[in-house]
Amino acid sequence: xxxxxxxxxxxxxxxxxxxxxxxxxxxxxxxxxxxxxxxxxxxxxxxxxxxxxxxxxxxxxxxxxxxxxxxxxxxxxxxxxxxxxxxxxxxxxxxxxxxxxxxxxxxxxxxxxxxxxxxxxxxxxxxxxxxxxxxxxxxxxxxxxxxxxxxxxxxxxxxxxxx
Amino acid sequence: xxxxxxxxxxxxxxxxxxxxxxxxxxxxxxxxxxxxxxxxxxxxxxxxxxxxxxxxxxxxxxxxxxxxxxxxxxxxxxxxxxxxxxxxxxxxxxxxxxxxxxxxxxxxxxxxxxxxxxxxxxxxxxxxxxxxxxxxxxxxxxxxxxxxxxxxxxxxxxxxxxxxxxxxxxxxxxxxxxxxxxxxxxxxxxxxx
Lengths: 163, 193
Ligand SMILES: Nc1nc2c(ncn2[C@@H]2O[C@H](COP(=O)(O)OP(=O)(O)OP(=O)(O)O)[C@@H](O)[C@H]2O)c(=O)[nH]1
Ligand SMILES: [Mg+2]
Prior knowledge:
The structure holds 2 protein chains of 2 kinds.
Chain A: H1 2-9, H2 13-27, E1 31-36, E2 41-46, H3 53-73, E3 81-85, E4 89-95, E5 100-107, H4 112-136, H5 145-159
Antiparallel strand pairs in A: 1-2, 1-5, 3-4, 4-5
Chain B: E1 3-5, E2 10-18, H1 25-35, E3 45-48, E4 54-67, E5 70-78, H2 86-93, E6 98-104, H3 110-126, E7 136-141, H4 153-158, E8 165-167, H5 176-189
Parallel strand pairs in B: 2-5, 2-6, 6-7, 7-8
Antiparallel strand pairs in B: 1-2, 3-4, 4-5
Bound molecules: guanosine-5'-triphosphate and magnesium ion.
Guanosine-5'-triphosphate binds at residues 19, 21-27, 53-54, 78, 80-82, 141-142, 144-145, 169-171 of chain B.
């Protein structure tokens, strides 16, 4: 279990960011964010600085997982798309695979057709990229575990200390 | 199972405060959040009811710092303790790297502590995690109450052996940092690629 999840975590995010950037260019959206179901942001593009993507990833993951449970209650496996309509800004969320979802913030609700179409395309490309990087990305990037642990433990001791 | 992002050079761990309703999970996270340096923490988000009970979760990202070429983050969550939020608890537990179990030291809450700990173990197993091999720290909170539960009773009842135990008064911050420090150490110690 542990090892398996670690592998799926080792993602080449450059490729993913490129797909998201293309998506932004095609749809003129504000932000596109890729996140996993644990609530961690994987990659993003657009005017990310305008939005706290860390908090947004945590909230959207919560929202999506809650919605999935609701789906099960009404006899669906899951809802593959979530749409939140605001006054000016809207959010379109779609599932890439079991673990990953893509959230798009956009303005102009009339663009929804285009958003939907391009999201579907992007999710496919991303899904394929994730499937490949899962297997290939392990070698040259290894972290030295003993060193990592030593530094981390020191940081922990200094941060969680009454001053 | 921390999330490693090689391109952004980020490693994220997920820490969850678990426990029965009103045991002091949110009080713990609030204290941690306000104690650590401002440049090490993001905003604390609380999804709560109008009565200040946690409805879904509290969350804030804690930047541990840079290690080698990575920036390391702990994503800190609390979950709702009220019994009917079981489905939400299960969702938030997903992907956790470590759990602080916040028990309530009031005698009237004894059974609830036991029940919730058992639910925690059950939920971990649902995610194919062996609770005995998973980083958990047990905190006896509300030590300031009248005739608190004796330390050792919960562990004994549940047959817990290697779980570290801390006493706390979360509203004052007593024991809060000690608890999270030990849990963090355990999470890091279990880290492997
Ligand atoms: N006396 C005392 N009160 C505490 C302590 N810790 C928390 N409380 C109080 O207990 C109540 C519940 O605390 P919370 O931190 O909101 O509890 P929680 O576990 O997050 O509760 P839920 O979100 O409903 O599961 C609040 O009124 C706190 O002020 C403590 O150590 N001693
Ligand atoms: Mg709470």
